[in-house]
Amino acid sequence: MFSENTPVRNSLLAALPPEDLARLRPSLRPVELPFDQTLYPADGPVDAVMFPESGMVSLLATLEGGEQVEVGIVGHEGLTGLPLVFGDDHSLVEARVQMEGTALRIGAAAFRAAMEESAALRGLLLRYALFFQAQVTMTAACNARHPIEQRLARWLLIAHDRAGDDEFAMTHEFLSMMLGVRRPGVSVAANTLQKAGLIRYVRGRMAVTDRLGLEAASCECYHTARREFTRLLGPGSSRQRG
């Protein structure tokens, strides 16, 4: 049970009116998100919603040959288990922890009941779904058209937003899977960003050393998705539109 005195670190939950959050608290349970844990499999059931408070979860599409490509990212700004928002309990993609952290878990039945009871929660979650659609849309456009250096800069900005620190664990193998390119291409792109003084990469640890420079090196896709998040879920949006 999530105590009434425990502060909320998930942005969606924090945006709820106090009375709606109070009704939800008894159904929330704090859980750990260990690195590489699968929260639900591709083409499998979704039995709970996770509201991350730290860390990062990747949503991975799996192709027939077994290759996996990241199609979406969830951190403290959102939730996993989006099919449940729309009344479904099946996921096309796998949800896997790519940056360890913590979350607040609520079972599917309790989540559905909470959505029925709270118009504010329903409105907030539907706006988040619109933002997530925008993120997936820009990811597809970015991967199809932009150079790998820009794509890598964009992805590192997204990871940096959710890491809570300038330095975090990251390997070229992982980035290769996330960007859908071969490892040598990732190595060349990372070396380019490092030579420009934007990042530092040593033994599986990535550090963002020039945030503004990395934003300038990224394509418009990062900024477009960020503006959409602010439009849909920025300060004051949930309570005024919920």
TrEMBL record:
One of its GO terms (cellular component) is cytosol. The keyword DNA-binding applies. It holds the Pfam family HTH_Crp_2. Residues 12-130 form the Cyclic nucleotide-binding domain. Transmembrane segments: none annotated. Keywords: DNA-binding, Transcription, Transcription regulation. InterPro entries: cNMP-bd_dom, cNMP-bd_dom_sf, Env_Response_Regulators, HTH_CRP, RmlC-like_jellyroll, WH-like_DNA-bd_sf, WH_DNA-bd_sf. PANTHER family: CRP FAMILY TRANSCRIPTIONAL REGULATORY PROTEIN, HTH-TYPE TRANSCRIPTIONAL REGULATOR ARCR. This is cAMP-binding proteins - catabolite gene activator and regulatory subunit of cAMP-dependent protein kinases. It comes from uncultured Acetobacteraceae bacterium.
